[in-house]
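Lab meeting, item 3. Inverse folding demo.
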């Protein structure tokens, strides 16, 4: 008896029509030798969420630049390097890595993105005394 193969595909990566055509082709060509497992994955963070994150990090960087804050306040390491948006993005990537199996925000689903923002808000408030609010849709 021939061993059945299991194929997994990300359905949320393709448009609905493309996904349907792909599944139809796979099913027509399997000759009952394969099992197709289809699972809808959580929706990834939106472009608006990403834009808001970058805007917010820039806003915080500007406030911290005016205050003369250096990276030691954020990383708790001795340094005299002023905080920039790039440093805040690198810090956010460190947080993303600690949240789950991700290496950048584009891989986050909406729930993990919300966790990231909550962690960043709390960290910036505690370490930088910066409570710049996360941007809403009108600011993006």
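The presenter then showed the designed sequence:
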């Amino acid at each position: 008896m021939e061993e059945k193969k299991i194929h997994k595909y990300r359905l949320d990566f393709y448009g609905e029509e493309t996904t349907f055509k792909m599944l139809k082709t796979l099913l027509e060509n399997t000759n009952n030798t394969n099992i197709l497992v289809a699972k809808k994955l959580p929706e990834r963070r939106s472009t608006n969420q990403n834009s808001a994150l970058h805007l917010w990090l820039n806003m915080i960087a500007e406030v911290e630049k005016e205050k003369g804050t250096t990276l030691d306040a954020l990383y708790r390491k001795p340094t005299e390097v002023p905080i920039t948006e790039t440093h805040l993005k690198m810090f956010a990537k460190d947080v993303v890595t600690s949240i789950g199996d991700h290496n950048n925000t584009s891989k986050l689903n909406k729930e993990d993105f919300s966790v990231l923002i909550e962690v960043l808000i709390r960290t910036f408030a505690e370490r930088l005394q910066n409570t710049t609010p996360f941007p809403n849709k009108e600011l993006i």
